[in-house]
Amino acid sequence: MATDYDVVILGGGTGGYVAAIRASQLGLKTAIVEKDKLGGTCLHKGCIPSKSLLRSAEVFRQSKDADQYGIECSDVRINFSKVLERKDAVVERLHKGVIGLMQQGKIDVYEGFGRLLGPSIFSPTAGTISVEYIDGRENDILIPKNVLIATGSKPRELPHLKVDGELILNSDQALEMTELPSSIIIVGGGVIGVEWASMLADFGVEVKIIEYADRIVPLEDLDISKEITRCLKKKGISIVTSANILPDTIVKTDQVQFEVEDNKGTTIHIADKILVSVGRKPNTEQIGLENTDILLNEQGFVETNSNYQTKEGHIYAIGDVIGGMQLAHVASHEGMVAVDHIAGQDPYPINYLNIPTCIYSHPEVASVGLTEQQAIEQGYSIKKGKISFKAIGKALVYGETDGFVKVISDSVTDDLLGVHMIGPHVTDMISEAGLAKVLDATPWEIGQTIHPHPSLSEAIGEAALIVEGRKIHG
Asked: Exactly one of 362, 420, 453, 473 is catalytic; which is it?
C-alpha cells in the first residue's frame, strides 16, 4: 500500500520524534519509520538509562559518606537488580510518554526498517520509502514530499578489540550487565568513558581508563581535563594516557589481558570486563543512500547545508548521522530547523558555539563556547576569571568543593568567548552561560546579575567579576 505524506522521518530517536512533533504543529502530514523503539539511543541505550545508573551510584556514594553530615548509616549495600529495575522503569515511563506525544500529534508511526528508493513508478525523484517488516508482512510504500534522515549512530569498534557482549563490551552492551564486575578497563577517556568510569568506581568496581590521546576528555578545556583527572584518581581510578594497546598481546580467558605501550614503556593490564568507548559512527548502511545523490564526507557522515538539506534538496538529515556535536539536544534543534525550512519558514541558524555540552560524571563537567586553547589559536587576546568551589558557601554546605568555574572573554571587545565548569550540579548551571552566549553578554553583565546567596550559581557571577578585576571571594 502506498501512502502520501508531507514529511517522512527515518528514525524515531530524540531528533526524529521532536522533528515530527514540530512538523505536526505546522500542519504537515507526518510519519516516522523506526525499526526499534521510539526514543532511540538516547532513551533506551544512552542518555536516560546511563544517567539513572549514575544517580543510583551517587546515592550509594553519598550513603557511604553520610557520617560526615551527621547521619549514621550502617551496612549500606547495593542491590543491583533493584538499580536495574529503577533504570528500566524510568525508561519505560518516558517511552510511553513519547508514544503518547505521537498519538497526540496524529503522527503515523511505522515499526519497521525504512529504505530510500530511487526514481520509480511512485515518484520521478529519489526519496520514496519502502518500510520492511521482520515478520514478513508486505512492505509499506511511503511517498513523501520531503524526507528527514535521523537514523543516529552506533558505538564505534576497534579492529583488535572486537566486542563479544561477554568480556568485551560496547556502551550498549554495558547497560545490559546484570551484575557488576569486580574490575573493568575502559578503552577511551572521552565523555562516555569518563561517565562509566565515575559511575562504576562509585559502585565499588576497580576501574582503569586507557586513553590514546595525551589526556582524558581531550576536547574539553585543558584546566577541566586536569581537574577531572585529579578527581577520578582520587576515587581510585587508574588512568593511562598516550596509550597504545598492542593487538598481538590480547588474551581472553575468564578475564581479558593485554599489554599497553605508553610514554613510560610497556605494561600488562588485566580485568574482568573491557568497555570499548571510542566514539560513535553514523547509521548509514542499507538505508538506500546509494539510490540517491546524497554525499558522505570522509568520515562517512551525511553532508548537509545550514538548513540540513542534502544534495537532494527535498531530503534532509540531522543528528548523529551528520556528525558534529553528537548530542540529543543538538539533534532536536537541528530537526526543528530542518522542519521549519521544509514548511517555508525562515529558521534561525544554529550557532554551535552557543550549545552547552555536559559530562554527567562525579564531579560533573559542563562547557559552552571556546576553550582557552581554542581562543588563543584563533588569535583572540583573552582575559579570564576562575573561581574554585571551595570559595562558594553552598558548595561547602553540600560537601562538594572540588572543581571551579572559568570564564573567558575577548580582552578587546569584552565579548564572552567561553565558560567551563567542573563541580556540583554544573550540568544544570551551564544554561545561564548558554543564555549569556546567545545574548552576546559580557562578563561585566554577568557580574552585574545578582545571584542568590547561598547558591552554587554564585560561582558564575564571581568568576565573571574576576575577569573584570573586581574579585570578591575568589
From this structure: 453
User: In the chain, what are the domains?
Assistant: 2-154+281-342 (3.50.50.60), 157-278 (3.50.50.60), 353-467 (3.30.390.30)
Q: Indicate the pTM of the whole model.
A: 0.95
Digit-coded pLDDT (tens) for 55-100: 999 999 999 999 999 999 888 999 999 999 999 999 999 999 999 9
Is there a catalytic annotation at residue 420? no
Structure-block grid coordinates of residue 166: 561477554
